Amino acid sequence: MGHDWGYTHPSQIMQECASISPMFAGVTYERLEGWKSLSWPVAADGTDTPLLYTDGFHTEDGKANLFPMEWKEPEEATDAEYDLSLDNGRILEQFQGANQTGRSEGIWDQAPHGFVEVSPELAAERGIKEGTWVRITSRRGSIDFPALITDRVAGKTLFMPIHFGKPGVNALTGEHNDPVVQTAGLQGDSRQT
User: Fold this and answer.
1) Four-point Cα dihedral 135, 87, 81, 70, nearest 10
2) pLDDT tens for residues 83-136?
3) How far apart are CA 7 and CA 9, in angstroms?
4) Domain 84-192 has CATH 2.40.40.20
5) Distance CA 38, CA 49 (A)
6) Exposed, middle or buried, 51 (CB in 10 Å: 0-12/13-18/19+)?
7) pTM of the entire structure?
8) Domain spans of the chain?
């Protein structure tokens, strides 16, 4: 793209980021070196905050812009064949599809493989034990992951992180999405293999 990328040290990259993004103004390589951390926004003097927007939002009046939503039926609902709902999202140890964090052995030590979270009541109903490999099937495809039995999910709702495998949970999603935030939605079923 014609830019000079002749960096000789990672500190130069961080310095450039801090120079163009006010939220990172006080982030320096030296302040992060040795696994130290900062919570953005970071003021130019290096002070940070664990909470965003304590002094107001980036709006004309400093207040959050909220608007009411009207609930709508999902385009695809559970039925007799696909009787479970599947939520997906992030886990603390990884970021996005692990395209950045996936290069760190230490992170893989903490979260070495994907899983599907199953409620204790659903596990009892379907005879699923901790670690049992289950096949998650939607109207578009199937993927296999070990079950993690937890009360973080309830009833017939499952949860899968988005970070493991290609295409991973995306193999199950369709083209329909939330009309406001444009996130995908799906329903599926769980069959033991």
Assistant:
1) -170
2) 999 888 877 666 555 556 666 677 666 666 788 999 999 999 999 999 999 999
3) 6
4) yes
5) 8
6) exposed
7) 0.62
8) 1-66, 84-192
